[in-house]
Amino acid sequence: MAEVMRSSFMLMLLMIIISVIVGEKRIAAQVHHVVGDDHGWDPSSNIGAWSSGRIFRVGDKIWFAYSVAQESIAELKSKEEFDSCDTSNPIRMYTDGLDSISFDAEGTHYFTSGRPESCKKGLKFNVEVLPQPKTKEEAMMIVSTDDAVATGPTPSASTRGLPSSLWER
């Protein structure tokens, strides 16, 4: 009986060690970004404001949602093509109305409207894809510097007669 208990303990300890090692390797999760949020890829969207401050990492995915009748997306090779809205020789054209692109490597990607007139009006953005954090501490620093802060509930009319210690922290 003691030998069975010892074997079970050793197996459990081994499982915990393996879990910790595997957990160390998978630090960050894949993030899905919907370009333009609710407005999607549209000339009326402010894509520059949407992309400002966003961090894109290897493993992330971006989604383009747009009207096929009005738009398409061109992925371009260079900053020069991007700046001039030259879509004559794209890496790829996206025309399905709902397209996803996975970032498998670090680097800069250039996306513009397939319609030069929409591109010249600002329907374009470039993405700098960063590496995944190498350590758990680095990942925690990224999370702790995030501006997204949730606020707690505020007291409603139905709580006004209750002691404040019940709803304040």
Automatic annotation (TrEMBL):
Residues 153-162 have a biased composition (Polar residues). PROSITE patterns: PHYTOCYANIN (PS51485). Gene3D superfamilies: Cupredoxins - blue copper proteins. The keyword Cytoplasm does not apply. Residues 1-23 form the signal peptide. Residues 146-169 are annotated as: Disordered. Keywords: Disulfide bond, Glycoprotein, Signal. SUPFAM superfamilies: Cupredoxins. The keyword Cell membrane does not apply. Residues 31-131 form the Phytocyanin domain. This is Phytocyanin domain-containing protein. It comes from Nelumbo nucifera (Sacred lotus).
